[in-house]
Amino acid sequence: MSHTAAQLELDDLKLVYGEVESLEKEGIYIGVPIKLLLFTGFRNHAITKLKVENINWEEDLIVYNQKVRNSKNKMQVLPLPPKFMEELRKHVSERKLTDNDPLCYGIKGYPLKNKQLNALVNKVNDYLNWNGEERVTPHGFRYTIASLLDERGLSVETIKYLLGHSSVTNVDLYLRRHKRKIQEIKEELTKIEVELEGSLNKDREVIKSSDRAEVSNQGSNKLKTELPYSEEFILQLSKSNPELLEKLMMDHYHK
pLDDT class for 75, splitting at 50, 70, 90? Predict the structure, then answer.
């Protein structure tokens, strides 16, 4: 594996998930393309060519048709986890997108291009202070999802299905032929999504606990108003060990 395509562990993906949410609070909406990279392993050109019509809303699938030089179509049909499907519905509704509109957009709100996708991933790298071989690339997410599914016991055949293409052009025939693989992938992606969303919920609880502690201690001259730790330390701890951060906060505010 090239050092330019770093492979992430699940804990790393939790950090990515957290940073995507933090960026959205700052008005930088990159969750859709980043999560598509994460859950599908699509290559750059596939992510940037996706349109709203590529989503099968009834089956929670994304269907990618690729024209190749000999005029034949290659198709890739992949399941998406339920929470992300909700996010896509909200994304399409709030932007008032039609079936023929691009699905993914860059930081400035324009349809996403290859170089802009690299810029989005680099934005996450920068926020996480990932440097050198730590930095993940769009292609690195492809390695990551394949590795995670392998660790969770999916067959090589199923993982090859995730990463590959078929010359079948009829979606119904495709689904019948690959129904078992699609179901296996969806089940594992849903489990991964639950773990990633769970890490976000823990971070939110830490913030709520901190806010409650701060409010309850207002007006007391005996209590300190700031934690004796740097902002960077608190940020990293909130992602790596939120339970410890909450304990530190509670201990501090109850001195």
Answer: confident
In angstroms, the CA 246 to CA 85 distance is: 31
pLDDT tens per residue across span 146-160 = 999 999 999 999 999
CATH topology of domain 10-178: hpI Integrase; Chain A (1.10.443)
Cβ 24 vs Cβ 87: under 8 Å: no
- What is the per-residue pLDDT across 104-132, written as a single tens digit (0 to 9) for each? 999 888 999 888 899 999 999 999 999 98
Size of the chain, expressed as the number of residues it contains: 255
What ranges do the domains of the chain cover? 10-178
Beta strands of 68-113 (E only): which ranges?
73-79
